[in-house]
Structures are given as C-alpha cells and as structure tokens.
Amino acid sequence: MRRIIVLSLTCLVAGCAGEDHSECEEKLEHEKAVLAAERATCKKLEDALKQRIDELQAERDQLADRLDDSQFQLFENAPDPFEETHEPTVTGSQRPAKTSIVKSEENPASVGPMKVLHAGARVVKTSKNYQTIAWKVELKNQSPDSVKFNLEVQFLDSDAYMLDSASEYAVIFRPGESRSLTGTSLLEREVAPRMDSVRPIITIK
Questions:
Q1: How far apart are CA 100 and CA 96, in angstroms?
Q2: How far apart are CA 197 and CA 188, in angstroms?
C-alpha cells in the first residue's frame, strides 16, 4: 500500500510538471495487481491456519477421550487387586441384597431395581503424600421405571473397615439403562496399600 501511495504521488508530480507519466501509471497498476495477489495469498494462508487449528482441537479432544477410556480399561483388562468381595447395601425403600458383587455377568448382584454388574478400584497415580484411586461401578436398572439414587463407594481394608469413601448424588437411570459410574479419590500414601476391596452402597430416593 505504501508503494502505491508513493507511485501515485510520483505520477501526480510528473503530471504537474507536464511530463509523460504513463510509465508511472503502468507501475501503479502493476503494484495494485501485486498487492491484490498478496492479499489473496494471505487470505488462503489464514483459512488454512484456521482449518489446522480446528483439526488440532479435534485431535486434542479425541486424545482426551482415549485417555479417559484407557484409564478405566484397566478395570477390565488387568488383574484387579481390589475385587469386590463384600455384600452391597441398599437403604431406603429397598432391602439389602444377599449376594456378593462379582465381576462375572453370570452371577451379578441385585440391589432392589438396580443390578450391580461390577465394582472395583485401583491406584492410578502416586504423589509424595497421596495416591489417586480410580473407582468404577457398573450398574443396570432392571425396572420398567426410572430410578433415582445416591451411590457411595466405600474403600475397605482386609477386615472390612472403611478407609475412605466417594459419593455420587441424585443419579438417574432410565428404564433398562446400563452404564458405569466412575470417579477418583485421594488416599494418604500410607493408607492406600491397606485397601483390599470396594463396596457400593445404593440409597434409593
């Protein structure tokens, strides 16, 4: 743009002096064409950059989803030292279940209208003072109605004493719905090795 202004002034001066300024006009038209081409190139580069940013954001979201999935695939694919061996408990309008939670779908536990397909936890991260415990409870609503409940996940030692717990509130399962509830909790580093099992407690609302 600065070049075009300089050339325009040069042509104006040449015209005032009575000189032939056709050469200046030709240069001015040439500079205009160059500027238009440069603008078009910049626009293409800007569009390509925006498209690449969108692609990178999509890849970032996919990687985040894969990380979340892989974190809890450990429950299914790796030996779990924290298998559930204790009886699930339900309070409120439902009676306690009489069977233990196991991983096998051939012998699932039932807690009122809710079937507990799996419950487990494992250490996923260790810091100087704490260990991060990732837990997972897989449930199915067996009733023809929606069920609203609170879930407490208790972390127990080998004598069934509770070391800590995590909670999910006002959870709603649609009729026949199956899905997993997951989360993480922090246990003190000297306490975490004592964790032997987990026990889900369901309170029907």
A1: 11
A2: 16
Map out the domains of the chain as residue ranges: 2-75, 89-204
pLDDT in tens, 81-118: 444 444 444 444 443 333 333 333 333 455 689 999 99
Determine the Cα–Cα distance for residues 136 and 133; give it in Å rounded to an integer: 10
Q: How far is CA 35 from CA 5, 30, 42, 90, 169, in A?
A: 12, 9, 10, 75, 63
C-alpha to C-alpha distance for 199 and 98, rounded to whole angstroms: 14
User: How far, rounded to the nearest angstrom, does the alpha carbon of residue 11 sit from its chain's CA centroid?
Assistant: 63
Q: Taking the mean position of all CA atoms in its chain, how far away is CA 12?
A: 65
Give Rg (Cα) of the chain. Answer: 34
Question: Could you give the strand order of the β-sheet that contains 147-156, starting from the edge strand earlier in sequence?
Answer: 89-91, 197-204, 147-156, 162-173
Could you say which DSSP state residue 95 is in? P
DSSP per position, 62-75: HHHHHHHHHHHHHH
Class at the top of the CATH hierarchy for domain 89-204: mainly beta
Give residue 24's Cα distance to chain centre: 62
177 with 140: CB under 8 angstroms? yes
Residues of the chain with pLDDT > 90: what percent? Answer: 40
pTM: 0.49
Q: Which two three-digit tokens encode residue 77?
A: 């694919």
